[in-house]
Each structure stands twice: as C-alpha cells, then as structure tokens.
TrEMBL record:
Gene3D superfamilies: lambda repressor-like DNA-binding domains (1.10.260.40). SUPFAM superfamilies: lambda repressor-like DNA-binding domains. Residues 74-113 are annotated as: Disordered. InterPro entries: Cro/C1-type_HTH, Lambda_DNA-bd_dom_sf. This is XRE family transcriptional regulator. It comes from the Bacteria. Residues 74-83 have a biased composition (Basic and acidic residues).
Length: 113
C-alpha cells in the first residue's frame, strides 16, 4: 500500500515547482513578488518554505502562466472527476414518521360523517 506523502515532502516539491515555474518565465523573486503584490522578501519566504497561501495561489499561477493544478500537484493531467450531485438531484429520503392526520378548518382532526 502506498504511503501517505508527508507535509515536508509536499512542501519541498511545491518549493521546487514554484522555483522552476518562476525561472522558466525569466522572473526574479523581486519581479514575481511585485506581480503578486507581496514584495520580494515575502515571496522569497513562500518559495523557500514551499508554502503558498490560498489567496495567492491563483495569482502565482497566473503570474508564471501555469495551470494551478500543476502548481499544486505537479501533474499535468487531471484525473477523471465524478460529478457531485446537488441535493435537488438526489432521491428524497423516505420519512419514518407516520403520515400526518388531515386537519379541519379549525386545526383539529377531521371527523368522518
């Protein structure tokens, strides 16, 4: 059985992808920091640590012109995804309660005549 990847391994790989993507675009850490609106020192820490906050993830991918999925996973091909069903598309659950008694205009039970 495959072992679950560790957080430190994920961060090392993410740091490498961030570096590779930035260098392929011919950008310095200062330039990409400016493009992302965070400055060189902040970007440098993210790249060294292999940590990229969610609010900067898409900005980084756009700046380096890479697919965000690749930045996150290192994979170019996306797996087939099973479409989630909305609650309105699922079968209604059957109630285990007994059906409600019909009520009359006064709110009480109706009486058979």
């Amino acid at each position: 059985m495959a072992q679950k990847p560790s957080r430190s391994l994920f961060r090392k790989k993410l740091a490498a992808r961030m570096y590779d993507a930035r260098v392929r675009r011919g950008l310095t850490q200062e330039q990409i920091g400016d493009l992302m609106g965070i400055g060189e020192q902040s970007y440098k820490k993210h790249e060294q640590r292999g940590s990229l906050p969610a609010d900067l993830f898409e900005i980084f991918a756009l700046a380096v012109q890479e697919d965000p999925y690749w930045v996150l996973t290192g994979r170019r091909e996306r797996p087939d995804v099973i479409e989630p069903r909305l609650p309105s598309q699922t079968k209604p659950r059957r109630s285990r309660r007994s059906p409600q008694q019909p009520t009359g205009s006064d709110g009480g039970p109706t009486q058979a005549h």
